[in-house]
Write a structure and sequence with these properties.
Layout: E1 10-12, H1 15-25, E2 30-37, E3 47-53, E4 58-61, H2 73-76, E5 82-85, H3 89-99, E6 106-108, H4 109-115, H5 123-131, H6 151-162, H7 164-178, H8 181-189, H9 217-237, H10 241-244, H11 247-256, H12 261-264, H13 272-291, H14 304-307, H15 310-330, H16 340-351, H17 363-381
Parallel strand pairs: 1-4, 2-5, 5-6
Antiparallel strand pairs: 2-3, 3-4
Amino acid sequence: MGNLEIFPPWIVTSTKELAEAVKEIENSPQLAIDIESDSFYAYRERVCLIQISSSSKDYIVDPLAIQDLSLLGKIFSNPNMEKIFHAGEYDVLCLKRDYQFEFKNLFDTMIAARFLGEKELGLKAAISKHFKIELCKKHQRADWSKRPLTDDQLRYAQLDTHFLISLSDIQKKSLLERGRLEDAKEASENLSALKAQTRPFDAEGYRKLKGSRDLSPEGRGILKELYLCREEIARMRNKARFRIMNDELLLQIAKVCPKDVSDLSQVKGMTPYLLQAFGRHIVDCVLRGEKSPEAPVCWADKTRSRRTPPEEVNLFEKLRLWRKTQGETEGLDPAAILSTEQLKDIAHALWAKKKDVFRSLSDLKKNRYEQSLLKFISSIQE
């Protein structure tokens, strides 16, 4: 059981301090891990804090102050030390992306909550339920790249890991009683296999914006120009895209087609700052877009359903219904039954008439659901 008494965290801001911290925790059987990033502010997102809690102390590592974090690598990859996250997929992917860390022996308390049938999966709800403490989440979208950090921010960051070891101990006991401990461990360990990939900018992404298909050909041309312009400005200024212009504003401009800055000022959602900073760029985009209208041809080609045979899509949707029913029967979140990717693999294997339909399932999942799935598949193929 972790330490519930809260003392000030150790703020690690130098290579020397990191080495001392690692020496203290390298033999710990369990560590709780979390990160904070600047994803709501920067075009090029980066890890801005790494929080680590042992059973006796909380550490807050500042990656912006320490050039070499490689010492943490041996901790994250140590198979004899359990690393505990809450909703750890994002954290693991960011740490792999920025530092090429590898992970072994993971436990995710949100995944565990799914296998316990919890309705509220957030950390705030879990801490409130088990420790009667209300976490304040007002810094959830703070700009963590700014320095110095306030005491309030540091406290917020500390509490994201402080209770995780104790929470995991409580959950494991309940999971063991329900016969679901191995399920939660397997699903948690799957996080270690995640591949960090930097998504290239999709120049055709404007086609996927909600409402884009309802625009006129000229409106779609304008939307394309605005979408590309926003990307370039965001990249040049290292700002999150939505902090330049959000999707709703792009669509509104494309609908109204303002011919000059005066017209643009009347568009719903246009602020004085945006008008002053980007007004001329936006009007130029409108003029270019009107001259290069986008015909609706190939719009459906950009959707997954067009690339995926309709029969396969139909199988996937039916499998989703099976998962939903199975989840209701077991009192579990459907995602705890099988992942969406696993359902897609099964649907594809069925459509392609492959022999090993359940090749993507672990032995544990096969033992739990193979017979039920075979029965369901037989019923929909009759």
